Structures are given as C-alpha cells and as structure tokens.
Amino acid sequence: MANRIIVVGGGAAGFGAAGAALGSDPGAKVTVYTSFEDAAYSPCGIPYVHGKEIPAFEDLFLATKQHYVDQGMDVRYETTVASIDVNAKTVTLEDGTVDRYDKLILATGFNYADPGVPGTDLSGLYYVKNIRQAMEWDKVLDTVKSAVVCESTPLGLEMVTALAHRGIKTHLVDPAPWAMSMATDPDIIKPVEDSWIEMGAELHFNTTLKGFVGDGKLRAVATSAGEIEADLAVVATEKTANTALASAAGIKLGMSGGIIVDSHLRTSAPDVFAAGDCIEAVHGVSKVPIQGLSGAHAYAQGKAAGTNAGGGDREYRAVYVPWGMVAGKWMIGGVSFSETLATALGMDFVVGNGQGISRARYYPGVKPVKVKLLAEPKDLRLIGAQMVGGEGIKERADFLAMAVRKGITLHDLASMENVYSPPIGALAEPIATAAQDGLNNAGA
C-alpha cells in the first residue's frame, strides 16, 4: 500500500517537503492542504512589486498549478485543516472531512504578532502575506497619500523602502532607538536611515504604538509622540510560529514558541514532522532555540522533513543565520550576532571593523562596503558579522556564515586570499581589513 503523506501548508516549507517526499518515495500518495488560493509563490517579493522594482505579481509565482499535478502531488487549495489526531493518525478539515496519513508534515508557517492596541479591526491595516490580497492592496496604494509602517522588522524595512519608492509619504514607528535593532548596530544601519530621510520618509524611533484611530476606516496612527495621519498602516510586527494545530494535538512546543523538532525534523508525535516558520531551530553558536528565519531556511527544512517522511535520511543542522536585504539605497546583511545582541546575551567578544570598496576605485559603479566582525576573545573564532554597502553583501554573508560554522578565526580571515578583478573586486578585501583590525584590538 502506498505511503500516505499529508503536508499542511503551501509555502516554501510545504512544497519543499512535498517534492522531497516524492523524490524519496516516488510511489507515495502526497496530499498538500493549503488555505491559500495558489500554489507556491514568493511572498518575499511582494514589497518589491509594491515598490515597482518588480513589474508584476505574476513574476513571483514559482510554478504553475499543473506543475505540481505533473509531479504527482494532490494539492487542495483554499482548504483548511481544523484539527489533527496523532493517535488515530488523521486530519480533519473545516468541512468535517477526515483524511488518514502514514506520515504528516506540518508547515503551518507564521502569524504576525498581535500589536496589542485598540483599532486593529479598522480597514486600512495591511498585513503583507497573501499574494492575492497583495494584488488588491497594490490598487489601494495608488490612492494612499500617507502610510505608517509599524515596527522595523525586516519586512518593515522593505516596506518603508517600497512605499517611499512609490512616492507615498511614509512614516516608520518603532519603540527601539534605531531600525532593526534586534539584528543591527547603529553604525551599520545609519546609512539606511539617512537614505530613507533622503527619500522623504519620517522616522519615529523610541516611539510606542498606542492604537489605530478611525471610524470604521483608518484615519491616524496613535503613538506615544502623538497621532500621525495615515490612509494605510502596514503592520510589520515580529513573526510568531503558527502552532495552533500542533499545540491542540499535544505536540511539544519550545521556549521560542515554535514546534520542537530533532535533527531529522521529527516532532514529539510519532510520524509527525514539521518545517518552516512554525518550528524552532538551534543556533550553532549560542545553542539557543530560535524561530522565524528566512524562506531559504524554510525550504531547506521542508526538503529535509519531506525526505525523511518518505523514508530517506537527511539531517538538518544547527543554523548560523546569514541574512541580507536591500533597505533604502543600501544593502545590509550579517551573520548571527550584532554587538548589541551579543552584549544583551552576556557574550564576550572582540570587534574588528573594515572599510573597503566593491570594485577597483577607478571602475565605474564602485560602491563602499563596511564590514564588522565579532570573534570570541580567547581563540578569536568568528561568531558574527554585519555589513552595509552598495553591492556584494549577500555573497559575503554566505561566506561568513560558513566561516562561523567551520570555526574560522580572525587569523584565518586576516590572511585570506581574495579575487582582484577591477569590475568585481578591489585589491583589498574589507573582510580581511576588518579581521586585521580585530587582531589589533585583541592585541594578537
């Protein structure tokens, strides 16, 4: 009898899991339940369509619905799973239909944290997630004169940039003293903030959201510094794991709020796996469980969960969290810890800073690149990094994440080899410059 595999969730983790399950067990019967109207698409691209950098929402679709049919998946769109019975090994849909599984993969994603203020029932509040809703909101943006982005999460940074590009008067409200303070230091994010101001945005830091004001429709956003008139509010609060199904089924949750999984993405329930924003993963340096990572993490977790549900053997390792994005007129990125976060966690560290350029100084289009490295003070092993520049940030973040994973030290980086070619690389690599500065600071 065919292995019956049910996947709950149609995002990167869900479809990654379904495809991997079929790859591991081509004879399996794989069913994907998703509450959305569409097959897999990239929600990460939505802000860039709003900002007109990407021409159309259709460009965000990764494949047609027929593609998944051809792969052998049974995808049930606009279908919500209401409950799970891990003893009977069944899922029950909202309409009462019961479906049996041999293996279950939960890829239920995330919810935005409740702002916890009055007025969240008003129209005019936008939660960026569903592509069909985004298409409708994009039409609304043509009529919006003033918008408020609530909180400077990664999505918040992208939406401030997108709305400012769109020519909308944009305000950012955040209780922290600088943008994305959970991952950046003030010196790294300052060029971004300066560029937002150049683009006409107004930044309200150290400012608490108090509520949304209006009569049925949003008129203003109330803050600790007063009201800001607005036609639109983008609620960009932190991502929280969507674990309602798992919790109700008695599946264990962790300290971060995500589902606890082992190295093969197995949950506490027999034959139940989980992947994506609904789980927590172990950080490779701090060993602390963390949650709410990137789409790349979700897809990789889904592939591992699907492979294992199909009878294969794929391990998912601890994470070191390389990240990067375009914000304002700059690229920013990093790995693991900022100075601010490391200090908050009580970690000891040595810092090295390096200022460089992305190409030969005489080559057209040359951009500045700043690199900050954090290392353990004893053996000078790399534990974190941050960068801001005009190009080349993503590649450096990927490289430095692997350097952290492999225990590379400032000594190694200070003497690293680098490509020198005028169009793509300068003579001096700013990573090496930062490592040399770190060695000097450590007296090494």
Structure description:
By secondary structure, this protein is α/β, with parallel strands linked by helices. The protein contains 12 helices and 25 strands. A hairpin with a 6-residue loop joins strand 24 and strand 25. It is globular and about 65 Å long. The mean pLDDT is 95.
Summarize the structure.
The chain is of the alpha/beta class and 444 residues long. The chain has helices at 12-24, 46-50, 65-71, 131-141, 154-165, 186-198, 244-248, 295-309, 339-344, 393-405, 410-414, 430-442, and strands spanning 4-8, 29-33, 73-76, 81-85, 90-93, 98-100, 103-106, 110-112, 125-126, 146-150, 169-173, 202-204, 209-214, 218-223, 226-229, 232-235, 239-241, 272-274, 280-282, 289-291, 322-327, 330-336, 350-357, 368-375, 382-389.
List the helices and strands and how they pair.
Layout: E1 4-8, H1 12-24, E2 29-33, H2 46-50, H3 65-71, E3 73-76, E4 81-85, E5 90-93, E6 98-100, E7 103-106, E8 110-112, E9 125-126, H4 131-141, E10 146-150, H5 154-165, E11 169-173, H6 186-198, E12 202-204, E13 209-214, E14 218-223, E15 226-229, E16 232-235, E17 239-241, H7 244-248, E18 272-274, E19 280-282, E20 289-291, H8 295-309, E21 322-327, E22 330-336, H9 339-344, E23 350-357, E24 368-375, E25 382-389, H10 393-405, H11 410-414, H12 430-442
Parallel strand pairs: 1-2, 1-7, 2-3, 7-18, 9-16, 10-11, 10-16, 11-12
Antiparallel strand pairs: 4-5, 5-6, 8-17, 13-14, 14-15, 19-20, 21-22, 22-25, 23-24, 24-25
Helix pairs in contact: 1-8
